[in-house]
Amino acid sequence: MQSNCIYLDNNATTKVDPEVVELILPYLTEYYGNPSSMHTFGGQLAKAVKTAREQLAALLGADESEIVYTSCGTEGDNAAIRAALLAQPDKRHIITTQVEHPAVLNVCKQLETQGYSVTYLSVNRQGQLDLNELEASLTGNTALVTTMYANNETGVVFPIEQIGLRAKEYGALFHVDAVQAVGKIPLNMKNSTVDMLTLSGHKIHAPKGIGALYVRRGVRFRPFLIGGHQERGRRAGTENVPGIVALGKAAELEMLHLEEATKRERRLRDRLEQTLLAQIPDCEVNGDTTQRLPNTTNIGFKYIEGEAILLLLNKYGICASSGSACTSGSLEPSHVLRAMGLPYTTLHGSIRFSLCRYTTEAEIDQVIAVMPEIVERLRALSPFKNDEAGWLQAQEQTLLGTRG
Ligand SMILES: Cc1ncc(COP(=O)(O)O)c(C=O)c1O
Ligand code: FES
Predict the structure, then answer these.
(1) Quick one: which ligand is closest to 199's CA?
(2) Which part of the chain is the Aminotransferase class V domain (predicted)?
(3) What ipTM goes with this model?
(4) Ligand 1 centre distance from Cα of residue 191 (Å)
């Protein structure tokens, strides 16, 4: 198995911090008890679970009683949406956006088949919402507004508090999928309109299989997983103790590094982006560059296929992605970039680079060194170089063929 690469796909998942690994090893070996047990061997682990809860609460500016551990971001999103609807059985309307992660979009689509109506807010070319459209969609029947904090594909950040204020005016609950924002944007739930907020461990240098949902005190919450009394009856199932300990430590490290890492990642990301834009013709950044995560850039290279770029980057040991990991492999272009109304010529040739605190100057140099040549090589092979109409026709035929 390959283990060494230039890893610029941190929005898909991150490396577990070595400090986190070291801390959790005893919880995988010696301390295997059940935190709910009466005996000391198991019961002592409740303390570790509590410490992690405090660490996570500190990162969110929340109270520890407001943290519910989950298995992943997807579970957090599912649990929050279901809980909001169960708590308000008379309300049958949900507002979300066209650019959400499938963990929200596909839940909403299923709810439509169960008698709920869903408004999918549009975004503009920059990937930003129109708050007037949100206001016009809200009614007294709206149970929930659920939007992401930052987009996984473009890094575009939504004006969360402005959305929340409007939701509150209509008495709707407000859930935020902050899987991509946690650790990259300072958060303070104390002075916030957010009622529930999802996060995922594997995006912040903890392992896969652990996440959390913030539930504001006072928000009526009905559990998604029903069974035992764990998590104060809000999420049944024996706790993933090593995962929880890891998440707590990872949160502590995110807080410690946030300011300095954010600055560094922004500088490296901007250098990568600006150099590629200067050296490669016919390319552009997708999404609002003023309201954006510091670690993400999504660049559209006209007239070529993103997958072809990725394959060549892979030959140089560079990991990036087109769209998101969950949807890669499907031939459909990204629903996020489509919602932004990108032209077909760019839609298929878009690549996301996402950095983290381990990304080095030398790694960025390496990408800068190979990208112009990769794009030039692919464009030389492309029969449609500078031929918008030809490219468009070919893409349409491909799509028809795959659907056919
Ligand atoms: C915005 C967003 N929400 C939810 C998820 C799902 O998180 P998980 O992979 O932990 O289920 C992801 C993962 O890519 C994401 O980027
Ligand atoms: S890995 Fe991020 S979209 Fe699934």
Answers:
(1) 1
(2) 6-367
(3) 0.90
(4) 25
